[in-house]
Specification:
This protein has 26 helices and 21 strands. It has about 700 residues and is of the alpha/beta class. The structure holds adenosine-5'-diphosphate and magnesium ion.
Length: about 700
């Protein structure tokens, strides 16, 4: 049977593949609205899972309402008031048998609404409670007017992701219709029974029915926490799908050819002889792993994990030498211009004496410089270094053989794919990804299932551990005195200014203000400033001056997070440390402790510290092991934060939670491996089911 007729037969027998318009009551308009949610087929509705549940099975007395929680209340309207204090507002006061008053506020309302809600009207409303000046309030609660006895809901109410023009109630109705099309349990399963049985999970059919329509006696606490067996079953399947799709991505890449890039021993020896240090054992091991990959005509897909300062750059340079030796080009990309510039300097310093040209291309390079960089790259320049600008349209490599991405947690899977497509013809480049965020094993298995992993688990010798202290903002003067003392001894310091908003401009302003204050407090010191709003040449000049010890104290924003390397800097102060994530603090702290002198990192915080913030800062004080810190960060904040905000969408599971469901991952790997080997067609159907319309477009 051909693949096409195979697919047609499947469609006939699989009611899930029928279009949503085959459901009664779903016309073209509704079908179009559903499409906006990525829902095109009946099975897309089965797998459109609730975000959470609302408990409308009981009525809470107004007296018992708790701020921040959602509740259902029933009461009689006591007073109605329309006002225009700052904007039009409708306020309704209701009371119940507990003799307390709840205020309902509406900012968008129709005149008629005020009339309908006359005093004496009985209401049932559901909403999130907040503590107002005069007691509990709900803003824009859902409500209905009660005439006679209306029973409360019998089971938890699922809340779905919705879109404009499609409310919860209507979507719930459509999903209920779709659920009547669920085939029997055995037919619905796509995971072979012999793989599934040992896991002791609920059947997929039962799991779907439970999450969409929890029974009245369902375990409310478990459903709310996401730990119900039905949710675990679905989480397993979702994690499996994610795993399978990354593995497939990998297999697709590995089907292509890549240029074989064997080592040139002479070139490598000349490079190593010129280095002012010996490679660590870890660097030698990882370089060996890379060399083996590169020597084969199959694309390398390798992630090098190494804590800040572990010496990833030289490992990358060794990989680039393989390409150079074989007449192939290397592209090295970093997420920030500052970091890319630092690589540029290292590579030029190492490669130019060997007669290897290094081309620079960042987003801000324009005009003639850009044109000549593009020309050099198209002409086969051996090494090109830059930001993501290297991946943009219009950048043509003559013979790209190796793509290196530094600090990969800021790049997403999509970008990894774009990169692979930069290759000419049927060959794809080898790919090396460097990350300083040590990724906990569980997360790595899931997030980077498409990559092999090497660990640079050893720091170069001669480093002294950084002593970390946690200090209240109230003791700022003591910190300033400490800087004065350190700089008087000829050492240098960073003062990192952080703010919570993701605005370069605000951050720059804050840094400027701090700079002014510190200049005033430390008149005898040369103070420098570095922030993201400065011109590249100004940034470069500031860094250069700091490196050359013309500046003693550098006030900087988090642009210095990655890469900056000044061994004489032995003191770092981080403002508002309580607001930053552990991984980021660890990165920042990695800027000191690079030389032989003992270094200190001062974490300044604004009191009072929340329990969570306290725990985070404690962790940092106690350990400098990036892996321990990453595990802790994962526990405390979840995977989205750890992988960087830009990846949260990508890792945005519908039901799975990598921390909560981490225990499922070994089974996911095992089942995934067997399915890819023995049941590829089922694996594909499973992916299509979960990923739905969005992925179908992406694959087209
Ligand atoms: P990261 O892994 O954080 O990118 P870098 O590659 O920037 O680390 O290296 C940090 C510093 O350590 C640099 O100054 C680099 O030259 C130096 N370095 C790298 N490897 C060694 C080594 N084997 N011995 C001594 N110093 C090294
Ligand atoms: Mg680095």
């Amino acid at each position: 049977m051909t693949a096409a007729s195979d697919t047609r037969t499947e469609a006939l027998h699989d009611p899930g593949l029928a279009p949503v318009s085959s459901l009664p009551g779903v016309g073209p308009a509704l079908a179009e609205t559903l499409r906006k949610l990525g829902i095109e087929r009946v099975q897309d509705l089965w797998f459109h899972l609730p975000l959470r549940y609302e408990d409308r099975t009981r009525i809470t007395p107004i007296r018992d309402l708790v701020g921040g929680e959602s509740a259902q209340v029933e009461g009689v309207v006591e007073a109605v008031e329309t006002g225009f204090r700052y904007r039009p507002q409708l306020r309704i006061a209701i009371t119940d048998a507990s003799r307390e008053t709840l205020v309902l506020r509406f900012f968008h309302f129709r005149g008629q609404q005020a009339l309908q809600l006359a005093p004496g009207t009985r209401l049932r409303c559901f909403g999130s409670v907040r503590r107002g000046q005069h007691g509990p309030e709900m803003v824009h609660p859902q409500y209905r007017i009660l005439r006679g006895e209306v029973p409360v809901e019998e089971s938890l109410t699922p809340v779905y992701p919705v879109t404009e023009g499609l409310g919860q109630a209507r979507l719930r109705g459509v999903i209920a219709k779709a659920l009547t099309r669920l085939p029997d349990a055995a037919t619905l399963e796509l995971i072979p029974a012999d793989l599934l049985a040992p896991l002791g999970l609920m059947s997929l059919r039962d799991a779907l029915l439970v999450v969409h329509r929890p029974a009245p006696d369902a375990d409310v606490a478990a459903l709310t926490a996401g730990t119900h067996p039905a949710q675990r079953r679905l989480a397993f399947e979702e994690l499996l799908t994610h795993h399978l799709s990354l593995k497939r991505l990998r297999a697709n890449v590995r089907r292509h050819r890549a240029p074989a890039l064997p080592d040139n021993a002479d070139l490598r020896r000349r490079f190593l002889d010129a280095l002012p240090f010996e490679l660590t054992a870890a660097q030698q091991r990882v370089a060996g792993e890379i060399a083996r990959d590169l020597a084969r005509p199959v694309p390398m897909l390798r992630l090098v994990q190494g804590d800040v300062g572990s010496g990833k750059t030289v490992v990358a340079a060794l990989a680039a030498l393989h390409a150079v030796a074989n007449g192939r080009q290397t592209a090295l990309m970093a997420p920030t211009e500052l970091l890319a510039e630092q690589h540029l300097r290292s590579f030029r310093q190492w490669f130019e004496p060997l007669g290897i040209d290094v081309v620079w291309l960042a987003g801000k390079v324009g005009g003639r410089a850009r044109a000549s960089a593009l020309e050099a790259i198209a002409g086969g320049a051996p090494v090109a270094i830059g930001t993501h600008a290297l991946m943009q349209e219009g950048v043509e490599f003559a013979r790209l053989g190796l793509a290196i991405v530094d600090e990969q947690h800021r790049f997403g899977v999509q970008q990894r794919i774009a990169l692979r497509e930069k290759a000419a013809g049927s060959e794809v480049p080898h790919q090396l990804v460097l990350t300083a965020t040590p990724i906990p094993r569980t997360l790595a298995m899931s997030a980077y299932a498409d990559l092999d992993v090497s660990a640079l688990d050893e720091l170069p010798p001669g480093r002294t551990p950084v002593q970390t202290v946690v200090v209240s903002e109230a003791r700022r003067d003591e910190v300033i005195a400490r800087i004065r003392a350190a700089c008087a001894e000829g050492r240098q310091a960073y003062w990192v200014c952080t703010i919570i908003e993701e605005s370069e401009q605000l951050e720059a302003q804050a840094a400027q203000a701090l700079y002014a204050r510190l200049c005033e407090a430390l008149p005898e010191l040369r103070v420098g400033l570095l922030h993201g709003r400065m011109k590249p040449s100004e940034k470069q000049a500031a860094m250069e001056a700091f490196k050359n010890h013309e500046i003693a104290l550098l006030v900087a924003t988090t642009v210095i997070e990655v890469g900056v390397d000044v061994p004489n800097a032995s003191l770092m102060v981080i403002e508002n440390a309580e607001r930053l994530g552990l991984a980021q603090l660890h990165q920042l702290r990695g800027r000191v402790g690079r030389g032989a002198v003992a270094s200190t990192c001062v974490l300044l915080y604004q009191p009072p510290l929340s329990a969570l913030a306290k725990q985070r800062l404690e962790t940092l004080r106690e350990t400098s092991d990036g892996f321990v810190i990453a595990e802790k960060d994962l526990q405390l904040r979840g995977p989205g934060e750890l992988l960087g905000t830009r990846q949260t969408g990508e890792m945005g599971f519908r039901i799975a939670d990598l921390v909560r469901d981490a225990g499922l991952l070994p089974a996911v790997q095992k089942v995934g491996a067997v399915m890819l080997r023995a049941h590829p067609r089922l694996a594909q159907r499973l992916t299509a089911r979960w990923i739905g319309a969005a992925a179908r477009y992406a694959e087209a």
